[in-house]
Structure formats: C-alpha cells, structure tokens
Amino acid sequence: MIKIIEKGKFFKFLTYFIVVILINIAAVTLFFRIDLTKNKIYSLSSASIQAVSSLSEPLTIKAFFTKGLPAPYNNIERYLHDLLEEYSVVSNKFFNFQFYEISSEGGAKNDEIQDLARSYGIYPIQIQKIEQDEVKFQNAYMGVVFIHGDLVETIPTLTSTDGLEYKITSKIRKLNNKISALLNLESDINVKLFLSSSLEIVGPYLNLAGLSEIPKKIKKMVDELNVQNYGRLKFYHLDPSTEPKFEKEAEKYNILELEWESFKDRRRKTVPAGKGFAGIVVEYGNKYEIVELINVFRLPLFGTQYQLEDIDDLKEKINGIIDNLINVNEEIGYLTDHNTVPLSSGIASFGRNDSTSISNFKKLLSEDYSIREVNLEEDGEIPESLTSLIIAGAKKKFTDYELYQIDQFLMKGRNLIIFYDAYNEVRPNKKNQFMFGQNQRPLYLPVKTGLEKLLEHYGISVRQSYILDKSCYKQEIPQAFGGGERKIYYAPIIRNRYINKDVRFLQNIKGLILIKAAAIDVDNQKIKKNKLRAIKLFSSSDKSWEMSGRIELNPLFLEPPSDEKKFQKFPLAYVVEGEFSSYFADKPVPVKETEKDKKDSEKKGKKEKTAGEKIRKEIKAEERTIKKGKPAKIFIIGTSEIIKDNVVDEDGKSPNSQFLMNAIDYVNNREENALMRSKTQRFNPLKEVTAGTRTAIKTINIAGLPALVIIAGIIVWLRRIARKKTIKRIFSE
Q1: Closest CA to 557 of 459, 489, 638, 627
Q2: pLDDT tens-digit readout, 162-200
Q3: Which CATH architecture describes the domain 329-346+355-427+443-463+518-541+569-590+625-678?
C-alpha cells in the first residue's frame, strides 16, 4: 500500500515537471507583452509601425556601445535593444539591426570596430563615473547609424532614452523620403565654392591659415557626400579674383565679401589693397542656400574676429541643405515681410543672447519640415507647394491684394499658423535714453494689420489687450537687491486643469508658460453657420484679468485688481477647422499695386476706371475667386513670444517646445507624429491643493499614526474585556 502511494506521488511529480517544461517551451515562441505605463512609452506608436512596415529597401541599424558602462548609461543600450526588437516584430523583411560592443581592453577586432564607428562619424565622448569613492572619467561610444541603400544617417551621441522612438522613426522616414526625392531629381545639385585667391595674402593676418588647401578639402567632402546622394552632386570652385563674372555671381548670391586697404605688416612689408569673397552656395534649380565658410563675430576689447568653419560642420550643414532643397520633408512657409519675427537673426556679439532670436524654433521645425521663406510684398503670391503658412508677429499692414492671397491660400485647403501680437513694443533708442534719461519705458502701440477683418470673417477675433494672471512666473530677486521673488503677471503659467485634455496631442502636456498674450474669442454663431469646428486648446486661470489701453508691464507697478468681478478665465489659443468661406466671395479681386500706383493713388484728379473696365474686372474675379474652400485649419495664439529662444529650448524637450511642434503637426494632419513626440513628456507637476488641504494632510501625517495606534489599542482592550466577560458568563452558568 505504501509503495502504491509513493508511486502515485512520483507520477504526479513527473506529470507536473513535464507540464512546467512544456509551458516554458511554448513560452519561447508564444509570448505576449503588456505595457502598463500610462503613456505607453514602451509600445510603438502607429506612426512608427507605419514607417518601418513600409520599407521597400533594406534598412540596417548599427549601434556602437562601450562595454560595461556605468549607470545611468548602462540602461540606454538595453532600452535601445528592446525598442529595436519592437520595430523588428512589426517590420517587414527589410529591417535588421546589429550591436557592436567596444571594449576598453583593446585588441585587433576592437580596433576594427572603433574604426568602423569613426567612419560613420561616431566618436567617443567623455562620461563621468564613480568608482571606489572616486570620480573618474571614461571615454565611451554611444552612437547609432542608419544605413538605407547608399544613404547614411547617424545619431552620433545617445546619452538619454528620452524621445528615442521619435528620433528613430524620424530617421527612418527621412531616409525613405530622401531616396524617393533623389531618384526623381530632374537635374544635379550644384555645390559652388566661392573663394578668392587674393584672400591668401591677408589670411595669415586674420587668423585664417591654410586657405589654399580649402578647395581640395571641400572637394573631398563633396565626393564623400556624393556617395550618400546617388552621385547627384557637382562641385565647382569659382575664383572671383581671376574671373570678373565670378565676382558678379558672388555679389548676386550675397557671398561674404572681405575688403581691405593697403597696410604694412610687422616686417614693414606693404600688403596691397584688395578684396575677396568666401562662401559656399548649394543650388538646385531656382532654389539655393548659402553656407558661411568664414565665421565672423565680435569680441569685447578684441574687435572683429574671423574663424574658418570646421569641415565636419560644413558637411553636416550641406547635407541638411540638400534635404531642404529637394524637399525631403514636407514644405512649410514662413512669412518674412510685414515686420514679422525674423527667421534668422543677424550677427550678434560673441556670447550675447539675442532675445528676439527664434533659432531654436527654426531648428526644431527644420527636423520635420522644409522651411520656405515667403515674401508677399516682393513675390505677390504664396507658393502652391506649401501645406501651411506661419505668420509670426506681423506688425505692418497688409494690402487687400495680400489678404486676398492669404484668403485663397486657405480656400485651397492649406493651413494658417498665426502667432498674433496685439501690440507693437517700441523701445526707445540709445539717443533718446541719453536725452530723456535711462528709465524711459517702451511704448506699446496697438497692431492693426488687416488680418483682423479676415479672421473676424472666419469667426475669430483677438482682443486688443494683454492677459495678466495671479498664476504666473516668479522671478528670483538677487540677494544684492534684498532677495525673495517677484511675480511677473504678464507671464501666465497655464496649469494642467486649464488645458483641454479632449485634444489628443495635449493629453501629455501638463503645463505651459506664455508671455504677453492676448485673449482669443470665437463667434459661435459664425462657426455654427459655416459648419466649422472651434477647439479651445487652453485658457488662463480664473484669477486672471485684462490690461488694455495704456500698457504698463513694469513688475514694480503691477498689482492685481481689488475688484473680484474683474477676475475670469480667458481662452488663449484655438484651432478652427472645416470648410471656410472666402472673405472675398462677394468682392472684386484686389489689384496688386506697384510703388508707382501707390504714389499715383495719393494724387488728386486720378482718372476713374470706365464701366467696361469695372465689368471686366468683376468677371475676372468671378472666375478666379474660390468662394468655398476645401477642409483646412487655422491655429491661432495671441503672442509671438512663445516661439523665441527664451521660451523654446534647443532640444525640444520642454512642454512649450513640444506644444508648438505638436500643434504644427496637428494642423498638417500629422497627429500621430505629435502623439509619438509627447508620450515621453516627463514634466508631471503635483496637483495643486488649497492651504487648508495641505494643513490637514500635514496634521494627519504627524498625528495620524499615533492616533491609529491609540485606537487600535483601545479596540484590543475592549475585545479583551468582552472576552473576559464571555468566559465569566460561561463558567457561571
């Protein structure tokens, strides 16, 4: 009997053992993953799945990492490997990846891998590690290269996992688009080096040594780029010193010109007067961009300095320009006239922070779009190839003809992205400050550009005021001035609860900051009548108020109103979408006026148009004007300060930067791209609570535990008493 029981136990154990083995074998091939994170940061976005599953040629990703990296860098390689595994699962047969481990011990194979990494432009960086209570430094490789056909894209340094999926998908999409664009080119891309041989004379005096070797280096660089661009680059070295026609061509392209008078050097040798040109033009068809060969900057005390651009930097810039010229990315327009915020700032003093610069915004926008400058005053029209037009802080009045171009651009199903300034801030010049004192404050003049009537027709209006808010940025006061903090009421902080979470691309944005913002209103009757959809993106807090009329933004003179009735929420950004009706539907097509026409129109006695001319004009308008547009979008916010460098960070990780890029993506029907970008947003502020709630929580934390112990003790004591009574009652019966 005992033997039978022992055999039964043995067979039961054997059965369980076999089941466990079979489950493990099945789990090797049949497995599933569950991403429990709120933003699904460990799952691929639909944009990534679409990009990798649509590959038509082999794509190889090579990752180079140093072995045994200290924390937190050791997690990057593991995360990247898991992420590429996810790409591999949803991809087709053209996707593959390899990891190369670089050891610090050396060896022939290790040297070969390092040479391979360097050939792709991946070099070691210095990282810090703590070992045996000592801070040490280590050289480490942490880079990724993407190879698609003959094209190569790199992420030379990967020091964080933030936004890694977005970077990888952007590279894959860019390589895909670039192959298609290069194969469809109608002509070659010209790389013209304008370098005067006369500069070799003064080069040593300007710290520009080795100018004679520059053409060979540039040609070698272009040859390397040619391998990556299917041989569609042609290099030309043009010397304006030897050919007058090259000088005229350099002047046409506005190439940097250096001119000098005769002087004597330290050896008393006379250097004759002369001039020279230096610069690179990358040209395709009628489009071209200029690359500065010599960097000119000013240093205090030392004056103007000259420095040759690094060859590797030139290579990266030219490669980026090629992408823009052949429209690898979707083209987006930026209005550069009408006193908008300058897209490119001028030469500033070295180390000086230009508060009007939007270089960070331009850099982030260029990663996904090809920016095309639009000048309505000169060109008179908006290019058909554009999907959207950015109008940032326009101050100069638009003519009816220019408004007509903007209106018809919208009617064609294109989009408008408007950063509207309610006031033009006019700062006193240095001469006036000297005459009237240093404390002269800026003037704020109301802006009337003509866009107002266009927007009002679409059901949108911008208030002629600034919104101030108790929930605002707090400026720290230096200890030399007493310390503490000062509230900057015209820089409202948009809390999470005032952001519209029904909008998908805003769901992970937990806070924003604005500067000098005006309120946006929509006419719900017009919106409903025209069957449009108005989406409020966010608003100020319920403790905000308006400042209009005489504007005074000096924090020392700003105080919240004493009347509680003046506090209210103000909408600060909207997206309006649908089929817009034209402002010029029942109006004749405006005529583009030349400068001569403008002068003649001011003179009296101007000849009136005949009735026949008017009729012909109206017939022409009837044929040309699109009265009812295709589906389009208008994004509008009442400030252009939000795109400047003091608000937008260079890496695009801040909530403000991601909001801007997400809004532009949404307007251009790339919402999935926006969701992928913002799902790793780490800014997660604590929920605001009242002072009473904070006091209650503190009281509970301090006194709550002792109170619970006392209550538990009382319960135990009462139960013991009850138990004694029960026992006593049982034995007394």
Answers
A1: 489
A2: 888 989 998 998 888 888 888 888 899 999 999 999 888
A3: 3-Layer(aba) Sandwich (3.40)
Do the domains 46-184 and 185-327 sit in the same CATH topology, yes or no? yes
Report the topology of domain 46-184. Glutaredoxin (3.40.30)
Structure tokens at 182: 């290069």
The structure's pTM equals 0.76
DSSP string, 671-683: HHHHHHHHTT---
459 Rama class: left (phi>0) / alpha (psi -120 to 50) / beta = left
pLDDT over 60 (residue 596):
no
Residue 309 has pLDDT above 80, yes or no: yes
Region of residue 461 (left: phi > 0; alpha: psi -120 to 50; beta: else) = beta
Instruction: Name the average pLDDT for the chain.
Output: 85
What average pLDDT does range 241-247 have in this prediction?
Answer: 89
State the Cα–Cα distance between residues 277 and 261, nearest whole angstrom: 15
d(Cα 649, Cα 669) in Å, to the nearest integer?
24
Instruction: Flag whether pLDDT at 98 surpasses 90.
Output: yes
Q: Which residues contact 309 (CB under 8 A, 6 or more apart)?
A: 291, 292, 293, 294, 295
| Helices 311-325 and 214-228, packing angle to 10 deg | 50
Tell me what the mean pLDDT of segment 11-18 comes to.
Answer: 84
- How far apart are the C-alpha atoms of 571 and 521, rounded to whole Å? 7
Average pLDDT over residues 259-277: 82
Report the alpha-carbon distance of residue 552 to residue 649 in Å, rounded.
28
What does 445-507 look like in DSSP terms, one character per residue? EEP--SHHHHHHHHTEEE-SSEEEESSEEEEEPPGGGT-SEEEEEEEEEE-GGGB-TTSGGGT
Query: Whole-angstrom Cα distance, residue 12 to residue 261?
Result: 102
Q: Where are the strands (E) in 540-658, listed by range?
A: 544-547, 571-581, 628-637
Work out whether strand 233-238 and strand 189-195 pair parallel, antiparallel, or are unpaired: parallel
- Between CA 138 and CA 440 the distance in angstroms is 54
Residue 519 falls in which region: left (phi positive, over 0), alpha (psi -120 to 50) or beta: beta
| Spans of all domains in the chain | 1-32, 46-184, 185-327, 329-346+355-427+443-463+518-541+569-590+625-678, 692-732
Q: What angle do CA 369, 232, 149 make, to 5 degrees?
A: 75
Mean pLDDT of 527-551: 94
The whole-number pLDDT of residue 615 equals 37
Say whether 707 sits in a helix, a strand or coil: helix
HSE-CB for 252 with a 13 A CA cutoff: 9
3-class state of residue 8 by DSSP: helix
The CATH-assigned architecture of domain 185-327 is 3-Layer(aba) Sandwich (3.40)
Q: Which two three-digit tokens encode residue 59?
A: 């794509």
- pLDDT > 90 in the chain, percent: 39
Which pLDDT belongs to residue 620?
38
Cβ atoms of residues 244 and 221 within 8 Å:
no
What's the rounded mean pLDDT across residues 373-383? 89
Task: Determine the pLDDT at residue 235.
Answer: 95
Residue 316 has pLDDT above 90, yes or no: no
What's 88-103 look like in SS3? HHHCCCCEEEEEEEEC
